[in-house]
TrEMBL record:
It comes from the Bacteria. Keywords: Methyltransferase, Transferase. This is Methyltransferase domain-containing protein. GO terms for molecular function: S-adenosylmethionine-dependent methyltransferase activity. PANTHER family: 2-METHOXY-6-POLYPRENYL-1,4-BENZOQUINOL METHYLASE, MITOCHONDRIAL, METHYLTRANSFERASE.
């Protein structure tokens, strides 16, 4: 079982570094809703999209994984949220017109894609002066080859970029972006929000495959956390 299947089976709402507390801080930098049109890529189970909609933002949320998207729609129905446009699709070929959005939000999503292709799509769908907020894991120091292979095979990614490499990719896509601070990465950065814990489908832990997948993920995090930091990239389309 790969990482994304594990998250979708358990119904994890905020798997990105810093959890939902980091999301709330990020949205403070987005600013008040007004007429902003926001695209969230890789919306997962819809926690962030629903939160934004309830706070007055115009939100479109796209997710490739069908189980995640179904959970997002169920969340919206349960919370009485009607202001989100839910879309199933691929960030490498966003099904939106050019210059359609004021803000694009990604939280530990772009790392699981072809980064250069995804950033080019982000740039395309943002309006002039549009802003990208992308919170991602960055490589802090050289990772031993065997460990790197294990990590990339599990996460289905080969793009473990350093902060400078992320900045280079953003600028190559056309964005203006300053170097953000490096934040510490912790293997157990779950927010501890009781609501998020209650949302988890803990019955899935009885499935041996899921239990083994969770154990492998935990082992990888503990073994490799010293090699990573977290950056919140804020980029602008001039």
């Amino acid at each position: 079982m790969d990482y994304m299947d594990l998250l979708s089976s358990l119904g994890v709402a905020s798997a990105h570094p810093g959890g939902f507390a980091a999301t709330k801080k990020l949205l403070e930098r987005v600013g008040p809703p007004g007429e902003l049109r926001i695209l969230e890529v890789g919306c997962g189970t819809g926690k962030t999209a629903c939160y934004m909609a309830k706070n007055g933002y115009r939100v479109t949320a796209i997710e490739q994984h069908p189980v995640m998207l179904e959970k997002a729609r169920e969340r919206a129905e349960k919370e009485g949220v009607t202001g989100v446009e839910w879309v199933q699709g691929d960030v490498h070929a966003l099904p939106f017109d050019d210059e359609a959005f004021d803000v694009l939000l990604a939280e530990s999503v772009t790392i699981f894609t072809n980064i250069h292709r995804s950033l080019a799509e982000y740039f395309r769908v943002l309006k002039p002066k549009g802003r990208l907020f992308d919170r991602e894991l960055v490589r802090y120091k050289k990772i031993p080859a065997a460990m790197f292979q294990e990590w990339t095979e599990y996460l289905k990614t080969d793009s473990l970029l350093s902060r400078d490499e992320w900045l280079s990719a953003l600028r190559q896509a056309g964005f203006r972006c300053e170097a953000p601070p490096l934040e510490n990465f912790r293997s157990q950065e779950y927010s501890g929000d009781p609501d998020e814990i209650n949302e988890l489908d803990l019955s899935k832990l009885l499935d041996p495959e899921i239990g083994q997948g969770l154990m492998r993920y935990t082992q990888l995090m503990f073994a490799q956390e010293s090699y990573f930091r977290v950056c919140e990239f804020q980029a602008c389309k001039d």
